[in-house]
Amino acid sequence: MRTRIPVRPxxxxxxxxxxxxxxxxxxxxxxxxxxxxxxxxxxxxxxSGRAEVGALFxxxxxxxxDAAHFCTGxxxxxxxxxxxxxxxxxxxxxxxxxYIHSAITFAPGYDQSPRADLGGVWDVAxxxxxxxxxxxxDTESDYAILVIAPHGRREIQQYTGALLPAxxxxxxxxxxxxxxxxxxxxxxxxxxxxxxxxxxETDDGQPYARFNCPNYQDGTxxxxxxxxxxxxxxxxxxxxxxxxxxxxxxxSALFGPAMLKFYAATALGF
Length: 270
Known about the structure:
This protein has one domain (about 15-270): Beta Barrel (Thrombin, subunit H). Helix content is about 15%, strand content about 30%. It has helices at about 15-25, 130-135, 155-160, 255-270; strands spanning about 45, 55, 70-75, 85, 90-95, 100, 105-110, 120-130, 145-150, 165, 170-180, 190-205, 205-210, 225, 230-235, 250. It is of the alpha+beta class.
């Protein structure tokens, strides 16, 4: 396996973490939506992208057409301004207990090429994998946070803005953005999006979030589930079957107290 990227400790005092979770859970937007058992499929389209969401590349430096993207990530809010959220299985092999990539770059807003107005391509300095996934590949913990190296004295969040992780209160309408691998989608250098109702489904005895949209192929893992009309991210493609075994529906680990505690630990630097 390739060289491991160091992991920053993610310990956080219990009281601090509990406070963060309580505040987030109590905010007005964190209200359960009405039941929606139909969960119709949305329509997937290619579009020009959004600044907070980008493609992850397995390359020390971006090298044009030779640097194929492998997963999707999104900038999330933090005091430091240097964090990107993705799926844990994109960066960590839980069976072999090794990190998959020796070097990762991130291109926010990627559409055919990096965007200069968003800082171009950014290096990943460190990878924080959720403790549950790190320990035994727990699919309910299939999320990771990447620490992005600055450009000079500027952090990535200053260029892109950021999404805010929040509890998944299902069912609720989400917009999901991702990048298909080029082997599955000739237009994979442009992002896709789809709006649909995310709902809860139990598989193998565990609850996950699911949405139904076509053409979410390999490469969309880590793509954020953004509550429609907000900047709240309540999931990433991953979890059960690493996001699903069909391009017509996708899964996410349920974002709840464990995820928010992990996020708070990384965002606050403990």
